[in-house]
């Protein structure tokens, strides 16, 4: 039984086994009513505005988190290509912050006057808890992958054939739903799986808990945005 499970993990990766473990939780995060409403065009634009302002604040807090993962990769990784993957992610966040500013002005959202909601603060505090030197690279990179995966899967769904995403939201969906971002997520997943294969049991447990905690935070973030 044990050997069998290990074999599965080796063929398809530890992260794939987690996705199968709780498909409902994964679906709750990636097929949230907020996303379904973008995809079917019924979205309330005040929800979109709320999401835009709150996500801008989240991304600002996400930058130091991604930097901390990059730092861990430079110090702890057994593969020097990890650094390049993480650096590309960090560089993309530079564009992303500029994009948020442009998008906010388009929608009449004044970013300087937005206060973080509690759900957002809780999520940012969770990111901070993963930034310390006590958190292993394996655990931190798993969290990063999960955070990016939810947006990639959610927004790509809004671009699929048959979706009726309003044209004014298409650019937002393409930001996370584009093929390049999908490739970035697969690179992160590969890193996570490679590390998890060699992780101690304790690390594995921590990484799995962090993965499911990310899904919960993401669901709450959508709930908050929807209002
Ligand atoms: C809440 N999760 C949230 N915001 C984001 N921008 C991402 C994930 C992806 O970067």
Q: How would you summarize what this structure contains?
A:
The protein is built from eleven helices and no strands.
Explain what this protein looks like in three dimensions.
It contains 11 helices and no strands. The longest helix is centred in the first third of the chain and has 32 residues. By secondary structure, it is mostly helical. Bound molecules: 4-amino-5-hydroxymethyl-2-methylpyrimidine. The site of 4-amino-5-hydroxymethyl-2-methylpyrimidine has 9 residues, from helix 5, helix 8 and helix 11.
Please give a handful of descriptors for the protein shown:
single chain, about 80% helix, binds 4-amino-5-hydroxymethyl-2-methylpyrimidine, globular, disordered N terminus, mainly alpha, 11 helices, about 230 residues
């Amino acid at each position: 039984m044990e050997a069998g499970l290990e074999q599965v993990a080796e063929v398809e990766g530890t992260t794939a086994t987690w996705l199968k473990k709780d498909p409902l939780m994964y679906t709750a995060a990636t097929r949230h009513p907020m996303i379904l409403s973008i995809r079917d065009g019924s979205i309330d634009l005040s929800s979109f505005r709320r999401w835009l302002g709150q996500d801008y604040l989240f991304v600002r807090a996400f930058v130091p988190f991604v930097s901390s993962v990059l730092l861990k990769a430079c110090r702890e990784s057994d593969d020097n290509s990890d650094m390049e993957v993480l650096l590309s992610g960090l560089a993309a966040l530079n564009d992303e912050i500029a994009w948020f500013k442009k998008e906010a002005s388009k929608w009449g959202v004044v970013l300087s006057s937005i206060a973080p909601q509690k759900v957002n603060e809780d999520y940012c505090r969770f990111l901070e808890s993963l930034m310390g030197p006590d958190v292993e690279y394996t655990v931190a990179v798993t969290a990063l992958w999960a955070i990016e995966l939810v947006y990639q899967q959610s927004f790509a769904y809004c671009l699929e054939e048959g979706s009726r995403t309003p044209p004014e939201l298409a650019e937002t969906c393409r930001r996370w739903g584009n093929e390049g971002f999908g490739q970035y997520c697969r690179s992160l997943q590969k890193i996570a799986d490679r590390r998890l294969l060699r992780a101690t049991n304790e690390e594995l447990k921590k990484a799995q808990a962090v993965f499911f905690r990310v899904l919960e935070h993401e669901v709450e973030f959508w709930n908050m945005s929807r209002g």
